[in-house]
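pinging the channel bc i need a second pair of eyes. not urgent but kinda urgent?? the chain im working w is below, pasted from the shared doc
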Amino acid sequence: MAQITESTRSEVKEIVLEFFAEECEVEVSEISEKSNIIGDLDGDSLMFLELIEIFKKKYSLNIELKTIGKYAVKNPVKTIGELIDMQMLIIEHENNILDL
């Protein structure tokens, strides 16, 4: 479990925005926290899995994809902001995310 700071959130946001800009072939400036991942950016669930792997490596996270899947079923993510918030919870709580 990692300690969350404001710089962690800024870093996560930057990674998410750059990832979706590249994958969806749009400018970072066209993406906001209110952007709908599927409706506005034509994103998909495979992108979410790729992003999870990026963060697992970056923050040395010990979390199973099935745990994230169970959490996501109960707490679906539609916007970039929701995705950032979920990623922050994953970084902070790892496999304990289901206890929230």
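so The longest helix spans residues 6-24. and Residues 40 and 47 are 14 Å apart (CA to CA). — does that match what u expected or am i reading it wrong
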